[in-house]
Specification:
Structural class: alpha/beta
Number of strands: 18
Number of helices: 16
Strand order of the largest sheet: 3-2-1-4-5-6
Strand content: 15-25%
Shape: elongated
Radius of gyration: 29 Å
Oligomer: single chain
Distance between the termini: 33 Å
Largest sheet: 6 strands, parallel
Length: 489
């Protein structure tokens, strides 16, 4: 298998300080209690958590009659004293900072605390961990205004939409979201609700750069796979299918030749969602299926689709299609010597099936929802053989679909991407003629998805037909696996 190397769209991670990287929210709470001269309650949280010193000082002034300047100075002294003696990194914080450094993702510290306090924390954490630091002293307005996060993005030279802000309070979340950042909320003292574009976790333990990357531009890895009569020609085929799906890293698989039960059985083994259509088609998905499209009783050839929710408010339609296998153009070209006009004319059955598929997709699609069309089309692509304007793939292109494999590998001579057939080096009629190797399985897309990687997939080195029962790869087709980044919101 070709290793998958994702291209991270994540440009920077912007960290709040108090309560996010270090356990100072408790220290700040204690400092405010000391200055206020009373225990604080839940009703005081909006005036204290995530707020700059000056804001809380003004709030205390209305109750105590003391001047804002005196209260601010005392709050500074009380908090700074506690920070110097009681600073503790939050669980998982240092591990995440180290992982981001290894991945080459810059980080910034963005805090509503004054510079004097931030510098104490930076010394404790290691100032070299951060490319930029923005404090309450550095912007005219601080959180919940967007100014601190916008300032950090300007200093780093990145767009807010390409950044994740890590926050622990509603005030900080409001600031980051107003700036246009995706947010990872890790509440410290008060709960934070989920929302579109926001991920809520209990702690930073186990958070990876890849997870943060998906928050910026969620990725979706789509696999197209003809199972070859459900895989029945190969021993222990179901277990081998499960292994292949897991090792591919696929999030959703469009299946053909399912022999009726494969989609359900694979989904149950993986703990995934599934859709079965007729005796031949199915889709399995690690993401929830929110709608099902097409004729549920479709015949051996045809198409079926689902809508999946990749992330909150982020949906994608995935269709799987299987087109008729005969007459087969590569045989007619290689064995019968037919020219382009005859080859094109003989695509009428498949062309009709593709047009029906495209019609069904048009009837079910929704504004803003990208569409992926995968399948075994049983025909070559006009992008691979310019001497023949193969009409089936042209029809898909005219309907707005792009070929993900050919986007990733534009030169068909250098990267032919053959999917037929890893077990047929010679034609099975006994003549000894070489089997035409061709690309007949596809992952097409439209609607703003960006191709990050596309490859064909075969496990091991399959033995040729008919000695296939012991193969690790339980199919006569190679699979196609494409990784997409979803469009920005």
């Amino acid at each position: 298998m070709t290793p998958h190397t994702p291209l991270l769209p994540l440009r920077a991670v912007l960290f709040d300080m108090d309560g996010t990287l270090v356990d100072t929210e408790r220290l700040w709470w204690e400092a405010v209690e000391q200055v206020a001269g009373r225990p604080l309650t839940e009703a005081d949280q909006p005036e204290v958590l995530g707020r700059p010193v000056e804001y809380t000082a003004a709030w205390l002034g209305t109750a105590t009659g003391r001047t804002e300047a005196d209260l601010a100075a005392e709050l500074h002294r009380e908090f700074a004293a506690r920070v110097r003696t009681g600073i503790v990194p939050r669980p998982g914080a240092l591990d995440l900072l180290d992982a981001l450094a290894r991945a080459g993702v810059p980080t910034a510290l963005v805090t509503a605390s004054p510079r004097a306090v931030a510098d104490v924390v930076l010394d404790a954490l290691g100032a070299g961990r951060f490319a930029v630091s923005v404090t309450a002293d550095d912007t005219a307005r601080t959180k919940p205004a967007p100014d601190p996060y916008l300032a950090a993005c300007r200093a780093l030279g990145v767009e807010p939409a390409a950044c994740v802000a890590v926050e622990d309070t509603e005030t900080g979340v409001a600031s980051a979201e107003a700036a246009g950042c995706a947010v990872l909320a890790v509440p410290s003292l008060a709960p934070i609700g989920a929302a579109p574009g926001r991920t809520v976790r209990d702690s930073l333990v186990g958070v990876t750069p890849e997870e943060l990357c998906r928050m910026v531009l969620p990725e979706l890895r789509v696999m197209s796979w003809n199972l070859w009569l459900g895989g029945s020609e190969v021993d222990d085929h179901r277990a081998k299918q499960v292994k292949a799906v897991l090792e591919s890293g696929a999030d959703v698989v469009g299946l053909q030749e399912t022999a009726g039960t494969a989609a359900q059985e694979l989904a149950e083994a993986l703990g995934w969602h599934h859709h079965r259509a007729g005796e031949n088609l199915g889709v399995i998905s690690r993401h929830p299926v929110t709608a099902r499209f097409g004729d549920p009783d479709v015949g051996f050839y045809g198409a079926a689709g689902v809508r999946i929710e990749v992330a909150p408010g982020r949906e994608v339609d995935v269709w799987t299609a299987h087109l008729h296998y005969t007459p087969y153009g590569p045989y007619e070209a290689a064995f019968d010597g037919l020219g382009a006009p005859e080859l094109i004319a003989h695509e009428d059955v498949r062309l009709g099936q593709m047009r029906d598929t495209l019609r069904r997709i048009a009837e079910s699609c929704a504004d803003g929802v990208p569409v992926v069309l995968v399948g075994d089309f049983n025909c070559p692509s006009h992008l691979d053989r310019p001497d023949v304007a193969w009409p089936v793939t042209r029809a898909a292109e005219e309907a707005g679909f792009a070929d993900s494999y050919r986007e990733a590998h534009p030169d068909p001579a250098a990267e032919p991407g053959h999917t037929w057939s890893p077990i047929h080096p010679v034609h099975e009629d006994g003549s000894g003629r070489p089997e035409p190797q061709d690309r007949i399985d596809y992952v097409l897309h439209r609607g703003g998805l960006a191709v990050r990687d596309a490859r064909t997939l075969v496990a091991g080195t399959p033995r040729p037909w008919p000695d296939v029962a012991g193969n690790d790869w339980p199919s006569d087709h190679a699979a196609v696996v494409t990784t997409f980044a979803l469009p920005g919101k």
